[in-house]
Design goal:
This protein is mostly helical and 314 residues long. It contains eleven helices and no strands.
Amino acid sequence: MNTKNMDFGDIFLILFDFFSIVVFALTIILSIFAYKILYFKKEWHIHFRSIIGIGFFSLIVSSALTLIISMINISFRTKVYRNAPNKWYFIYVQLFFIQSYFYHFYRYIQWSICVERLIATIKIKDYEKVVIKYFWLYILIIVSGTSYFTHELFNRLTVLTSIRHKINLVFDIPIYILYSILWYTNKKMSKNQKFIIKSLSQKYQVRENLFIFWLYTPILTIYMLQQIAFIIFLSNFVDKNNNYKFLIISFTVKSLILLSQILVIIFSKKLYKKYLKIIRASNKVGIDGKYSDRHSISIKVGETYFNMLSKSWN
C-alpha cells in the first residue's frame, strides 16, 4: 500500500481497520462458545435464551459489517469519498446505514430481555410451563420491524438530524427503568417468606431472576457507558465533512466493548458459584454482625432443596 500521500490520521485509521479484523474474529469465536453454553443452559427459560441468542447474532452481523467497511477503507487508503468509484462509495455509505440499523436492533434486544423478564415475574407461578412455538421468530420480526421504523424515522425527519444522537439516549431510558423495577420486585419477593414457601418452583424462579439481574447489572452498565461514549463521539467527530470515516473507529470500539456481554454468558457458571457464595455470606451474618447457627441451618436446608430442584431441571 502506498502511504506517501497519507497523513498520521489516515495511518491511524488504517490501524483501526486492521483491528476490526481481530474484533470480528473474537466475536465469531466467543459467540460459538456462548451459543453452546446457551443451548445447555436449561435452567434459563427458552424465551430468555432465544432473545440472548438473537442479540449475539446481531453482534456478529454488526462486527462483520464493520470488517467489510474497514476492508473497503483500506483498499482506498481511508479516502473512499475521493478515491473510490461511485459504485463503491455508494456501497460504503449503504453499509454504514445498515450498521446504524443494527445499532437500533441491539437496543431493542435489551428492551426485549427486560420485557421477557417482566412477564416472567408477573406470571411467576406458571411461566416455566409456557413455551411459545417459534418465539425466536416473533421476537426477530418485532425487533427487526421496530428497528427499521426507528432507523427510518431518524433518516426521514430532517428536523431530528441535529439532535438524533441525543434522542438515541432517550430511547435507552425505558431499559434502565424496567431493569430497576424488576430488580426491586424480585428482591422484595425473595424476602417475602409467605410467598416463597408456597412453592419451591416459585422460590427457584425468584432466585434465578435475581441471579440473572445480578449478572445483567455489569452488562447493562457497560451497555449504558458505551452508548454515552458512542453518542458523544458521533456528536463531536462525525459529520458530512469527514464522510463517515471516523465511524469505523466508533463501530470497531463499540463491537469490542460489547464482546464483554458475550463473556458474561460464557463464564455464567463460574459467576453463578460466586453469586451463591455472596448470598450465603450475606445470609449468615445476623443483625449484630455475628453468625446465626439457627439461621445458617435454615439456609442450608433451603439450599439443599434449591439445588435438588435446579439439578432436576437441568
